[in-house]
Amino acid sequence: MKTDARRLPTAPIALAAALLAAFLVLVAPLSASAHDSLTASSPEADSTVDTLPSELTLTFSAKLIDGEGATEVTVTDASGASVTDGPPTVNGAIVTQPLVAEAAAGAYKVVWRVVSSDGHPISGEFTFTVTNSSLVAPTAPEETPTTEPTQPAQTAAPAPPSATAATDEPVAVEDSSASTAWIWILAIAGILIVIVAVVVAFALKGRGSSPSERSADPSAGDSDASSER
């Protein structure tokens, strides 16, 4: 017995395959990027508040995954100093970050990082402005009154006259003419002593050399002999 095999039409199969491929191409990226997102905050992003609140709250689109190091929130002032007061807490989809009680006016920056419900970490940042400072000016310490009686101020005694103070009496001035006369007298006496010493030296030299010169001169002896003859 001969049987005929029925073939299914190929057009509907091709159309279904094309629709499935289009669905995977369009829907798969959307499902992969459908992480949780920040839906609200207090203070709000780019808002202005009078003073810095006691806490910052972040609200997300789904319940977050909490754990050690999973949630991080930093809030800094215009100088970059941190104004957070302790670690953040997670309650479902809401993150609460305590802030310091005193803060200056200016712009504040919030940087957050959490783990969304699908297990992927997400992060973001925004700013807000504080118009009034909550810093308390330091007060000067109060002075305690003293019970001791105040003593009258003592008048300073007049200073004794200085020994070197100027007086009306004329100051004696040494006579320089007397010292000059003594200098000339000593100079003249020294010159006279030198002259006398030179004259005495020449006189002694002349007396001592005359007998020797006579004994040493032979011509003088010959002349004496001839005269005797």
Q: How would you describe what is shown here?
A:
The longest helix is centred in the last third of the chain and has 41 residues, at 176-216. With 229 residues, the chain is of the alpha+beta class. Among the domains are: 38-130, Immunoglobulin-like; 181-211. β5 and β6 (94-98) form a beta hairpin. The chain has three helices and eight strands, in the order αββββββββαα. It is rod-shaped and about 145 Å long. Strands 1-3-6-5 form a four-stranded antiparallel β-sheet, with no helix packed on it. It has a four-stranded mixed β-sheet with strand order 2-8-7-4, with no helix packed on it.
CATH class of the domain at 38-130: Mainly Beta
N-to-C series of helices and strands? HEEEEEEEEHH
Q: Separation of termini?
A: 216 Å
Output mean pLDDT. Answer: 74
| CATH topology value of the domain at 38-130 | Immunoglobulin-like
Q: How many E-type strands?
A: 8
Which class best fits the helix and strand makeup?
alpha+beta
Number of helices, where a helix is a run of at least 4 consecutive DSSP H or I residues: 3
